[in-house]
Amino acid sequence: MLTKYRIFALAVCLIGLLSSQPKASATPTTLLDSLGQAGHYAVFSLAATYQNQSNVHIYGDVGVGPKGSASVMAPSTVDGTIYKDPTAKVSGPGGITGGIITQNMQQAVADALNAAATFNAMTPTVMLSSILTGTTLTGNGGTNVIKLNGDINLGGANNLTLSGSANDKFIFNIKGTLLMDGSSQVLLTGGVLPQNILFNFIGTGKSLMTHVGNAVQGIILAPSRDITFHGLFGEVIGGGKNLTLMSGATVTGFPMESGRPPGVPDSSSTLMLGCLAFVALAAMRCCCRSRVCLQPLREKPRR
Prior knowledge:
18-stranded parallel sheet, 303 residues, 23 strands
């Protein structure tokens, strides 16, 4: 029989396990969650993509897909960890505060491609030919799917402003490209979250490019496009031949809720394993003392 101390410890363990379980969610909370493993990184280059960092600062983790490569040139700094596929290469004398971890990146690549296809299949709520001047789009309080057959091409002080609330999600499915110059920006007002802004560039096509003075908030998902970017708050995912961050560029990734790298179990999973181990140990000790489980019952000797 378990002692009262073991029973008390077991009760505490189970209470902690129940209280640590995350609340179930039927759907992803933000568009960032919809990216699966691909949503972990501030910068993520897909299969066979060359990632070039020259005098840049990245706040967040970096992913390098299968057969890809990343050049981190001084004085570039990655304030995070670089996760690279076993077939990928990382070179350069730039700083990487979290070091380099080699792990299979195929699932993260698949998640990015699946997300792009899923977003592209969504029924549009707004259809535009292009965005070539200062434009404000107001959300409907839920999911806004904007289909563009042309480009987002902003120069001077022309901005793309997305207005709404924290419940609004803006998904752009774009057949054209993104070109920004001057001081143009993507601005959010009314409580719209950058985690809920996603620019999905469909198929192959022209390269995406921003310049010094431009600022984009949200997620750039371009599985088949070359990218040359300067400033971003969010995440950029590129799968063309080159993903280039210009000299002086800053990319500020989304803070991860878990604060842990991919593949590391969360606290509730770790606690569950601990509880199971405790129960197993207690049961073994109980069996050993009663001699029920570890050896057959013996008849009492006759007098």
